[in-house]
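Holo model, FAE. Inputs:
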Amino acid sequence: MGNMTSPLSRRRFLGFAALNSAALLGLNTISTTTASAATRPGGPVPAVIIGTGYGAAVTALRLGEAGIPTVMLEMGRLWDTPATDGNVFCNMLRPDGRAMWLKDRTLAPLASFLWMDVINHDIKRYPGVLDRVDHGDMSVYLGRGVGGGSLVNGAMAVVPKRNYFEEILPAVDAAEMYGKYFPRATSTLGVNHVDPDWFETCDSYQFARLSREHAHRAGLKTTFVPSVYDFDYLRREEAGEVPCSALAGEVIYGNNHGKRSLDKTYLADALGTGNVTIRAMHEVRAIRRDEARGYVLTVHRRDDSGEIVERTEIATERLFLGAGSLGSTELLLRARDTGTLPGLGAEIGQGWGPNGNVMLGRANHVWDTTGRTQSGMPALGIDSWDDPEHPVFAEIAPVPAGVELWVSLYLAITKNPERGHFSYDPATDSARLHWNAEQGQLSIQQAKALFDKINRTNGTIYRTDLFGDTRPFENRFTYHPLGGLLLGEATDDYGRVRGYPGLYVTDGSLIPGSTGVNPFVTITALAERNIERVLAEDRLTPVGS
Ligand code: FAE
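Output:
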């Protein structure tokens, strides 16, 4: 916990206490007592935030610090109660209902091994932590739960290249971002760096050292990737001193230890202000505007079987959308096209992209082993982003199966200017993403140019058995959905939705389809910048005024 006398750590401690007592009582409402009194259901609430991912969590902390009573509505569960096996989350090798959001079978991106369907398993339907939303040629992976994507992601905390940031968000002052908001985001998120000496000798990253050797032989550059997984905890896992998490096949279905997910950082701090309440298992379905009450939300509460058990309304003066690229975009599209917020413009639903994601595997020679022990948390990337023809930043990904498989796996981020868009489908009352396989072709060409070079130099080949058929490159899914409500288009330059005072966007839907690196640090820093301006300029009502 660090130094308990500083205001931030005291606040974080109070927040942890609130999270834990909620779990103990089996409640879906998480807050300190003062906050729950200030935000009783029924009366209008000064501020509501939809979602509890990165943009939402930043906004909650800063509103809470400013003394503004705030309710967060999150459709997923609070993840801190151990199940009968003693663990909060399940691992990737023996998944159960906790793995996925209301599915009968797991849907891991690596679909097969030697073309065999050995990776996915039938599971009990349950509001689990990872969701996959399918839209034809594109499936989007998302975190569900208090902490959003931070619960399931690979913890890679990368600040984008400054010249590319300036290219994608030209209206944002880059000097201010790099001087103030990126440092603020990385320090509050608890970003840390692997000890380079330990990296060279440990078992956990033998797989990464092998890929590095192959990349260097091909004349390519590699770089360490900062993380919100505690590298000191990982070192102790490998030394056998603490329970394993990154070394126990835990990543995409949650980590039981070691990871500084948002419930350990921003959200704990937000709750500790005493002004923030989180309601888990509460999904916002509709938003309308009422002259007297402000924004009125229709909210569905679900039980553990996924059934809706309550339909309520909550009214607020200020509404912050932090439901992620798919979630926030869908809410505003539905509001526009069903006529509840009819003044929303044609910009809603535009500018979506998968951050150029392409996954691929290479087959290693028998003498080139990756090791049985592999950290689930990547720590190294191949950085070819400055290549003028084939810009790629490829994370060296683990295959944490616990046995030697002679596979090197990568998630490549490519620079693809193609964008998709969403439309509202009244038949299903949901947003449809329009993105086709052809739009992803450029990403494959870019990744192929880089990995062809590596294969040529090392005498290796692609694996064609990993993605359900014989394709060597998988770009039908993304971990990095971005866009839909672009900054400066659907909103002003600080996330205020055009035409609707008091309505704001805080999350990845502001970013136009690409960041060139893993996106959560960019989302966090942008949310820090925007909420600082909103608090300075818009008149929000603190407690007691
Ligand atoms: P997000 O974190 O998605 O949070 C949205 C929240 O809103 C979720 O908790 C939803 O359940 C909730 N929600 C949605 N709709 C509603 C509704 N109608 N009512 C109530 N609640 C709702 O949003 N990024 C990196 O930078 N590094 C990585 O290593 C990395 N690895 C990843 C690995 C995986 C498997 C996945 C899925 C993602 C990964 N990402 C990574 C992406 C990263 O997690 C993602 O960009 C952020 O989580 C997006 O943050 P947002 O604030 O936009």
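The two ends are 34 Å apart (CA to CA). Residues 3 and 9 are 7 Å apart (CA to CA).
Archived with the compound record.
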